[in-house]
Design brief:
Elements lengths: L1 H12 L34 H4 L18 H9 L3 H14 L1 H8 L4 H16 L11 E2 L12 E2 L4 E2 L27 H4 L2 H21 L6 H13 L9 H6 L1 H13 L17 H5 L2 H6 L39 H11 L7 H7 L9 H13 L1
Antiparallel strand pairs: 1-2, 2-3
Length: 376
């Protein structure tokens, strides 16, 4: 299934456009580029709180080929801009928003975006050091190395991955709502999967903070960030200096990204940078972050209405862009050309191309069409 996804992405991007405009690997931008630090990639008319940013860079479920050489895959991750690093995090947050908003106790989606920018700044400076999402620690130990071996924007440790019954690491099997990827080089050295597993790992520690250590309120998420960094979500009051240097610093940086309007651009900062002195002066958890109590409540299953097509009007089928009565790869090719202004759609074709029926034709529709083709 993953191979088909990669082949489809290659056809849609490289087969339609010049190699300079698009990449052959899903997860890199196709005809959508930010020309300045102030230009946002997503449609500014979107209701982000309700619908998220809409995956404007068309990231897939992985960023690199499952059968690709590790050096080649890392080179792909290395090319990301800071803005792409940000939107790749948002893509994972949006896909699991119902779960994340409940577990983190936060209903403001942009605050959650910002929190992960703060974590990413602590761990990787959001690729602002020129590494994109290709940053590895403990590399001198080889793969998989020790439990501290980590990769990507969130520096996700190998302990986050599923490692089989003989694993020497404690298995984090308590987040059934999110896919649990096997520990192998292909998964570990993938920027999207690393983000996915980092978010999953923090949710694991939210559960631990609640169940194992009976933490309350904002201390739950604060403790979970401690767990992400150290492996333990307990509160240790005799080590408050540690909290100031990691979870509290991450939250202050998050507040800075949020309040200074740097959620969607190429701007980044550094840990302990003076720009966030104002946010660092108070208690960002209590003053800015805290919303409702984080919860382990069951998350209702959402209907997969965006994964399959349905008749838009009697006798027609969403996704049938060329109007030949079936949905095939040729429809995806035509839609990709239209998005990149390499082809024009007539009124009837535009109706069929609008996969999410929002009266706009963009990369979101192409993503939904690709998902349909892969699933079917």
């Amino acid at each position: 299934m993953k191979t088909r996804l990669q082949k489809l992405a290659a056809v849609l991007c490289c087969g339609i456009l010049s190699a300079a405009a698009c990449s052959s690997v899903i997860g890199t931008p196709c005809c959508i580029h930010a020309s300045s630090a102030d230009e946002i990639a997503h449609d500014p008319s979107r209701d982000v709180q309700k619908d998220g940013v809409g995956n404007p860079f068309n990231f897939g479920e992985r960023n690199t080929p499952a059968d690709g050489a590790i050096a080649d895959n890392r080179a792909i991750n290395h090319e990301w801009s800071v803005q792409q690093v940000k939107y790749a995090l948002y893509k994972e947050i949006d896909e699991h928003w119902d779960l994340i908003s409940v577990r983190f106790g936060q209903r403001d989606r942009e605050k959650v975006y910002a929190l992960f920018l703060g974590i990413g700044t602590l761990e990787s400076t959001l690729g602002g050091n020129g590494d994109g999402c290709d940053l590895e620690t403990a590399f001198n130990q080889g793969f998989p190395g020790s439990s501290a071996h980590a990769y990507g924007t969130l520096q996700t440790a190998v302990t986050a991955f599923k490692d089989g019954p003989d694993s020497e690491y404690m298995q984090e099997s308590d987040v059934p709502e999110m896919e649990w990827y096997d520990l192998n080089e292909s998964n570990f050295f993938d920027g999207i999967i690393s983000n996915h597993m980092g978010i999953r790992k923090i949710i694991h520690f939210i559960r631990s903070a609640i169940v194992d250590y009976d933490l309350k309120g904002w201390q739950i998420v604060r403790g979970a960030l401690k767990g992400h960094n150290t492996g333990w979500a307990n509160y240790t009051g005799d080590n408050d200096g540690y909290y100031a240097n990691y979870p509290d610093e991450g939250c202050a940086l998050a507040q800075w990204y949020y309040e200074e309007g740097h959620l969607y651009d190429n701007v980044f900062t550094w840990t302990k940078a003076e720009v966030a002195a104002k946010q660092r002066a108070g208690n960002p958890w209590e003053d800015w972050w805290y919303d409702i109590e984080p919860s382990l409540a069951e998350i209702p299953q959402q209907p997969e209405s965006t994964e399959t097509t349905a008749p838009s009007t009697p006798g027609t089928l969403l996704g049938d862009v060329n109007l030949n009565g079936e949905v095939t790869l040729e429809d995806a090719v035509l839609l990709a050309k239209a998005i990149c202004t390499a082809a024009d759609l007539n009124e009837a074709q535009a109706v069929q191309a609008d996969m999410n029926i929002d009266r706009k034709i963009n990369a979101v529709d192409l993503t939904l069409l690709k998902r349909y083709l892969i699933k079917n």
